[in-house]
Specification:
The protein has 296 residues and is mainly β. The chain has two domains: 110 residues, Jelly Rolls (Sandwich), CATH 2.60.120; 119 residues, Jelly Rolls, CATH 2.60.120. It is built from no helices and 15 strands. The chain has a six-stranded antiparallel sheet, with no helix packed on it. Strands 10, 11, 13, 14 and 15 form a five-stranded antiparallel sheet that branches.
């Protein structure tokens, strides 16, 4: 069901767009709040936050743009309570970063079953692995067309042909989100962009990641979704993507997103993989084009 929401909901005290939504009869069991918007006012960067009684406030960071359908954008917040009943008051907040405009809001929707999960303390927490990197004279590690091997997305090596050595890959059918968090091993200021080296091969169902965004956190790896106080919301997020083809023979691409003088200790890159997505390198750069992520 739709919820009235727009620029008239601006609250000068908090600097946010704020509204309260009373769950009507017949709408118990809501699982998420979704904002549909476009960037006709400029590229919006910020979060949609939803507070329910007796629980934490859940949040979702705006993701990047779909390259094939740029006119459609949405951000959905899973609620932090699985027992939403009629008559509950749900508080909804929309934030924006300093160098951002408000989005052009199409609609705000309360939905059932849109997200098959609830927001909790460990939602989107990064996984840990004990496998060490396999040394190799080639970029990353073993060629993936021969055997699977451990790769390194911050080793400073970009493969020069199609047969990448150990490129990191995700396979989702039809599509799903993935994220990579880089620990910069200390506070870094003046972060200007994140560049992702990737590959496309339509015949092999290898496609460019879409809706790519970069988030910067201070003291923890930022999450695209989670709960305030327990999760790690981003302090800064990236702007509009720029896609460049590196060469014409191997279908290598770079996808870059600006960070506008961001600062923090961790950078999370989040995107949607359709079929196969392969990454060769992720570079976090400062305003002098120094790569700060190599070896991290």
């Amino acid at each position: 069901m739709g919820i009235p929401f727009g620029i008239n909901n601006y609250d000068s005290a908090s600097g946010q767009l704020v509204t309260a939504f009373i769950v009507p009869a017949g709408y118990g069991g809501l699982s998420s709040i979704r904002l549909d918007f476009d960037d006709s006012n400029g590229y919006w960067k910020g979060q949609l936050r939803v507070a329910v009684p007796g629980s934490f406030t859940s949040f979702a960071q705006r993701g990047g743009v779909d390259y094939f359908y740029p006119e459609y954008n949405a951000v959905a917040v899973p609620l932090a309570n699985a027992n939403i009943t009629e008559g509950m008051s749900i508080q909804i907040q929309l934030t924006k970063e300093v160098n951002s405009t408000w989005p052009s809001i199409i609609q705000l929707v309360a939905a059932k079953y849109e997200n098959p999960f609830i927001a909790n303390a460990i939602f989107e927490t990064t996984s840990n692995g004990t496998n060490a990197l396999i040394p190799s004279p080639n970029a990353d590690s073993a060629p993936t067309h021969l055997q699977y091997g451990f790769g390194n997305l911050t080793d400073g090596k970009m493969e020069g042909n199609f047969w990448w050595g150990g490129a990191m890959g995700w396979a989702f059918v039809p599509q799903s989100w993935f994220s990579v968090t880089i620990d910069l091993q200390g506070f870094r200021s003046g972060l200007s962009q994140v560049r992702v080296w990737t590959h496309s091969d339509q015949l092999a169902a290898v496609r460019l990641p879409t809706k790519l965004t970069a988030m910067v956190g201070n003291g923890c790896g930022p999450h695209a979704k989670g709960t305030l106080g327990l999760g790690c919301p981003a302090s800064f997020s990236s702007g509009q993507v720029n896609i460049s083809k590196v060469d014409t023979t191997t279908d290598r691409y770079t996808i870059s997103v600006p960070l506008y003088n961001a600062a923090g200790t961790h950078v999370t890159v989040s995107a949607v993989a359709e079929a196969w997505t392969l990454l060769d390198e992720i570079q976090v750069m400062d305003s002098f084009n120094n790569v700060l992520s190599t070896g991290r």
